[in-house]
Amino acid sequence: MTYIPQVPFRRPTNCARTMAPRTPKPQAGTTADKWQVLRDLVTGRAALGLSDRDLAVLQALLSFHPPQMLDAGSDLVVFPSNASICDRLNGMPCSTMRRHLARLVDAGVLIRRDSPNGKRYARRYGGNRVAYGFDLSALLARAGEFAMLADQAREEADRIRALRERVSLMRRDLAAYVEDGRLHAPDRANWDALSDLAILTARALRRKLDLPALERMEEALIAAIEPMIPCAGPVETEELSTSDAPIEQHQHKTDIDSFVKKEPPVPLAPNSDGISLHDVLDRCSEIQVYAPEPIRTWEGLFRAAETIAPMTGIALPVWEEAKLRLGVREASIALAIMLERYREVRSPSAYMRALGLKALAGTYRPARISYPSEKHAA
């Protein structure tokens, strides 16, 4: 009788039995919190091509590892049955669970340790323990990589959130420009096409857009808004004046008794272009009303502008862009001027963005003060 050697039983190769990519081994003495590693994977799962369902299966597998810490010096192989895994997944079908396991193995998150008969179990041979199942050492070895992917995903999400907000504000500004343009300059632009762009942008923003799509949308809106700045609505920074013309200077009367302590006067020293803080506050008194404390210095004006800008409806990204393009001083003066005619400004964000775009295009004219002598000489 011919002897036939016994070949260990192997299941047919399929998607659930694919070989895992080469994974570095964890260094001796390294540890990691298994739930923190899972949270990092949840945040950065897109870079690995994993879904939330894949990570739900991984969470179930981690629950079969009693310690919270993954330690390179301990046994990191778990060997639950398919039925036990499905029970912890609230009755997920076994075929679906195996498909998600295969995706985790393909991504190098798990390593299969198959027994000769394809079962999962642990045995002791002498003083050594041998376990067959799913090896979690890849999670420990790649914990730093997963944390880096999570940081990158959070940074990209922040960029998308900020860009999405800018696009939304620009879309609202475009709609306001179109409405004003139809009234003041109906023949200066194709207002119907620009209105359609604003409507289509609003519809697109209802979806979840990636960074390139938002960047293309921002470029289209900038190209549409820039030519309309001189066509729609007044956005010029008006000249400040200290002349004695009627209704030009703020008249303030008070009945406070003379024994009340008076505030020290605001410094009159002019800046390099001849504008003093006294001139700004004398012409634009509304900013003093809303300021949390009396304004006595340029720094006090800047602090007051930082506080008041969000109260007027100017979005934070728009205000930051205005300070970057105009400078902190010019942006603060522009805000003070806007407060004087706040009822006439339909969109404070559009007002500040238009000034910023003018500065970017090199057509912005900084605010200046005409002194009485200059006007008399003229």
TrEMBL record:
Residues 277-369 form the Plasmid replication protein C C-terminal domain. Residues 23-180 form the Plasmid replication protein C N-terminal domain. Gene3D superfamilies: Winged helix-like DNA-binding domain superfamily/Winged helix DNA-binding domain (1.10.10.10). This is Replication initiation protein.
